[in-house]
Amino acid sequence: MGKIAFLFAGQGSQYPGMGKDLFEKINEVHDFFGVAEAIRPGTLSQMLAGTEAELKRTENTQPCLFLADIASALALASNGITPDAVAGFSLGEVVALAVSGVLSKENAFKLVCKRGALMQDAAEKEKGSMVAVLKMDKSELEEMCSEVGVFPVNYNCPGQIVVSGKDERIEKLKEKLSNKKVRFIQLSVGGPFHTPYMKEASEELKKEAEINMLYNINKSYIPLYSNMTAKPYPTDAEGIIQSFSEQISSSVNWEDTIKNMTKEGIDTFIECGPGKTLTGFVKRIVPQARIYNVCDIESLKAVVEELKNDA
């Protein structure tokens, strides 16, 4: 076995009750959830017993999903499995900041709370949505997006690009796609994320990190791959802050990220958090890769047993 990467799930994979048994049965998870609850009271009730509608609100989704993602990483670490590199999809990148040592878990949670609130505000000012477009030529889709006034933002894997924009323009895009008999999937998110409409949120997050100095920034001790560049994060504080703040209004270059990780010897990918979206992408990008998902005690035990047998 070569190197292991942890991948952290992004918005849209959330569901009520996620992470519940990890919280109940893994001491490290239980302890950190208590810290997070003290920072943002009510988070655990939203996460473990909230409604789908409540969880869909970005200001709630992001703190809750952060906890579900990091719970899996903490559970793996408690069983002796740690990553050689990390990457997170959109908000998952904030989890990766914590797991790679750039931020403490507490400060990363504070950051994601602020990030979610800023993006919620931006989404309420600019009503929008996102759709995943399947099996369409990249250049043709980018041209169609330009015509309609929407943005291709998440380059997920071969045959899947997510488009983001204002609701009325997304509807026009969907009409054009239907006319061409191109499949698309409406995503369970509440705004036009990773577009210029998030610029104000991006600038506010950067301002908080730079001026208010609320977060103690460190150099990562393992490679942390950036959504924007698909390459490892900068090592200086200014570059780190710029990377995690501008990511909000920039594209997610996930396909290139996974390819670059593979070039550096990563052959095993563990998706931490609810769902199997990211492992599905990896399977299409690097078919020969070993892929796993940890979201609960059952999946944790299966992954730990298999990896320890291979050691």
From TrEMBL:
One of its GO terms (cellular component) is cytosol. InterPro entries: Ac_transferase_dom_sf, Acyl_transferase_dom, Acyl_Trfase/lysoPLipase, Mal-CoA-ACP_Trans/PKS_FabD, Malonyl_CoA-ACP_transAc, Malonyl_CoA-ACP_transAc_FabD, Malonyl_transacylase_ACP-bd. It is an enzyme of class 2 (transferase). The keyword Acyltransferase applies. One of its GO terms (molecular function) is [acyl-carrier-protein] S-malonyltransferase activity. The lineage of its organism: Bacteria, Bacillati, Bacillota, Clostridia, Lachnospirales. Residues 7-303 form the Malonyl-CoA:ACP transacylase (MAT) domain. Pfam families: Acyl_transf_1 (PF00698). One of its GO terms (biological process) is fatty acid biosynthetic process. Belongs to the fabD family. SUPFAM superfamilies: FabD/lysophospholipase-like, Probable ACP-binding domain of malonyl-CoA ACP transacylase. It catalyses: holo-[ACP] + malonyl-CoA = malonyl-[ACP] + CoA. Transmembrane segments: none annotated. The active site is at S90, H194. Keywords: Acyltransferase, Transferase. Its EC number is 2.3.1.39. SMART domains: PKS_AT (SM00827). This is Malonyl CoA-acyl carrier protein transacylase.
